[in-house]
Amino acid sequence: MTEIYKLTRGKAPLLISIPHLGIHIQNELRETYTDAALALADTDWHLDRLYDFAHELGATVLSANVSRYVIDLNRPSSDESLYPGQLTTSLCPEQTFRGEAVYRDGHIPSTDEKIWRVKAHWQPYHDCLAEELRRLRGENPHVLLWDAHSIASVLPRLFDGKLPDLNIGTQDGRTAAECVLRAATSGAARSGYTWVADGRFKGGFITRHYGAPQEGIHAIQLEMSQSTYMEEVAPFRLISHRARMVKQTLKTMVGSALDAMNTL
Ligand SMILES: [Zn+2]
To answer: Domain 5-263, what fold?
Structure first.
């Protein structure tokens, strides 16, 4: 069986979480999914490659192997909406971002199946994330949790027009100290990419749940437009020269936020 997640431990006060990197759907489940779902269009493609500078920074990196179409690790296990009143996807999404059915007729997971998926996939990822934050926080007064995401740049069901290139989310400044947030946003502002802080994406469950600046955990979500580094249609290939460029900006943003914690 494929491992649920991949963990690489480091010593720096930095944890990079990539909860939507997974493309695995177990064999016994695959026949319940539509062909549209099996194309896995809503995966946060290639982020492991964009963040491969993490080891130079001594970061701990936790990434999911299981697809978000099995379970979305950036939603609360209770499945309450992250954006009440707005269309958003759920713990076990039934539609893709483009509105296609995820499951074949009659195969939408039952409540028991969802409970099983929480236990088998959601809980282990979050147990690991919490444990690694505890370990790093035990060794450092402040820890940066960087929740890394990417999404297609045009999705009319979810937002108007084209999404800014870099979307920083901190629950309107509540999940990280101001200087840490300022360091990340100034990295974005100097980059030449379009960016916004706490716009359409304010941070999902991971940012909101673990971000506790008064306790030394500073959480920032970065939702990137996939147009900055890849082809946005299947087979979702990386565009190397774009990826190289945006990676420099990611490095600056993460590195600056990390340095800013030294001033706290
Ligand atoms: Zn994501």
So the answer is: Aminopeptidase (3.40.630)
**84 C-alpha to ligand 1 centroid (Å):** 18
Structure confidence by residue, pLDDT tens digits, 146-198: 999 999 999 999 999 999 999 999 999 999 999 999 999 999 999 999 999 99
pTM: 0.96
Q: Per-domain residue ranges for the chain?
A: 5-263
CA of 68 to the centre of ligand 1 (A): 9
Distance 89 CA to ligand 1 centre (A): 11
Helix (H), strand (E), coil (C) string for the chain:
CCCCEEEECCCCCEEEEECCCCCECCHHHHCCECHHHHCCCCCCCCHHHHCHHHHHHCCEEEEECECCCCCCCCCCCCCCCCCCCCCCCCCCCCECCCCCECECCCCCCCHHHHHHHHHHHHHHHHHHHHHHHHHHHHHCCCEEEEEEEEECCCCCCCCCCCCCCEEEECCCCCCCCHHHHHHHHHHHHCCCCCEEECCCCCCCHHHHHHCEHHHCEEEEEEEEEHHHCECCCCCCCECHHHHHHHHHHHHHHHHHHHHHHHHC
Which percentage of the chain shows pLDDT scores above 90?
A: 94
**Centroid of ligand 1 to alpha carbon of 203 (angstroms):** 10
CA 19 to centroid of ligand 1, rounded, Å: 7
